[in-house]
Specification:
two-stranded antiparallel sheet; mainly alpha; flat
Length: 160
């Protein structure tokens, strides 16, 4: 790689960089179009197969439900081509509505069920930046300031 000798050289390198970015974006765009086309073609082929899979699973489930007594002692059954079985699943669906979640949290606190609330604690980086060096040292941290270099080629100036 040749070393740049002048601002004109830097400007020419930025033009090259912008051209490379445009070429890269075009190729990635073509790739996405091709991928999306393949996904669409595959989706129509896979849909009937998925329906067959769901139907087979439903048929197996119905048969097993009719013969559930056989699963009283052993909850699963291994056959030549797979394993089937029942398992107890316990869940408590949490509402997605923000107001309902807030009401639930308030109720949990009111009933003294704070252990049913998850608190996510993590350091606030913005507040840590405001601390003085002595406090940061006490915390085992250090403030780093660096002059970060950036390159922003004007892609819009490249004709595509």
């Amino acid at each position: 790689m040749n070393e740049l000798q002048s601002w004109d050289d830097v400007d020419a390198a930025l033009k090259d960089l912008a051209t490379l970015e445009v070429t890269k974006q075009k190729l990635e765009g073509e790739m996405l179009v091709a991928i999306n086309k393949i996904k669409e073609e595959t989706k129509s082929k896979v849909a009937p197969i998925n329906e067959q899979i769901k139907h087979k699973i439903k048929m197996i489930e119905l048969f097993c439900s009719k013969n559930k007594a056989e699963f009283a002692k052993k909850r699963s059954k291994e056959l030549n081509f797979g394993k089937i079985g029942f398992r107890l699943v316990t869940s408590v669906p949490i509402p997605r509505d923000k107001a309902k979640v807030e009401a639930l949290l308030k109720s949990l606190k009111a009933y003294g069920l704070s252990d049913c609330i998850v608190f996510e604690e993590k350091p606030n980086k913005e507040k840590l930046k405001e601390l003085d060096d002595a406090t940061l040292v006490k915390l085992g941290l250090e403030k780093r300031v660096k002059d970060s270099f950036r390159v922003e080629p004007f892609i819009e100036k490249i004709e595509g």
